[in-house]
Amino acid sequence: MIDTVKSADGTPIAFERRGAGPVVVVVAGAANDRHGDEPLVAELTAEFSVVTYDRRGRGDSGDTAPYAVEREIEDLAAVVASFAEPVIVHGISSGGALALLAAASGVPMARLSVFEPPYRAEAEEVPEGYADEMRALVAADRWDEAVTLFMTAAVGSPAEAVEEAKATPMWAELRSFAPTLVYEARVMGDSKVPAKRLASIATPVLVVNSSGSTDWLKTAALLTTKAIPGAKHVQLDGEFHDVPAGRLAPELGAFYRDPR
User: Fold this and answer.
1) Which pTM value belongs to this model?
2) What are residue 236's phi and psi, to 5 degrees?
3) CA angle 41-161-37, nearest 5°?
C-alpha cells in the first residue's frame, strides 16, 4: 500500500511500508526509486518494518521547483516524522550521502547505516564542470547524454560498458531518471567528504563497502568513517558497488540490534 506525506514545502512524498518490527527507512541512490533495492528489502522485512520512498522527482512523489538539497533533507525528515517510534535509516550510494547530511542537520534517527557514499579523495575528483554540464544536458532534454555523463564521469564506467548498457532494456529506465541526476550532483557537491558537517553527527553510524569496489569507493568509506565520531566500518565480500542482500542484511541487522 502506498502512503503519502507532505514535505515542508508541500511536495507529496510517496512511501511504502512492509514487514513488522523496528522501522528502517531506506534512502535510494541515483537512478533508483522506491523499488530499486527489493532484494535487500526482502531480507530485512524478516525482522524489520522496512519503509522505501520515492525521492522527489521520482515515481509517485512530486517535484516542486526550485530544487535544493535542503528540500530533500526535509523530505526524509517528513517520512521519519510520520512514525511515532524511533526510526533507523539506511542510505545507499548518493542516498547515503543524503542521509548523512540529514543526520548532520538534526533529522532524528535511532541508527544510520550507509553503503558506499561516493565521495572522492583529492586525486579522484569528479571532472571539473560536471554539475554544470549535467544541468545543461538535462535542460536541453539530452537525456541519453546525461546518463552517459553520469555513468562515465560519476560512476567511472568505461565507455564500452555504457554502449553495452544502451542495448539493454535497463537503459530506458536509467534514462527516465535523467532529470534527477542534476539533484544527485547537488547532493554530492564538490564530491569531497564534508568532514566538518559529518563531525556533528551524534547518531550511531555504520559505513559499509564492498571488497569488489574500486579503490576510490573504499577510500571514501574509510574517510567517511573517520569523519564521524564513533562510527563503525565494515568491508563485506561483493562486486563493484554491490554486496549481495543475503550478506549485507545480516550485517545491518546486527548493527541495528546493537544496544550500545
Assistant:
1) 0.96
2) -115, 150
3) 5
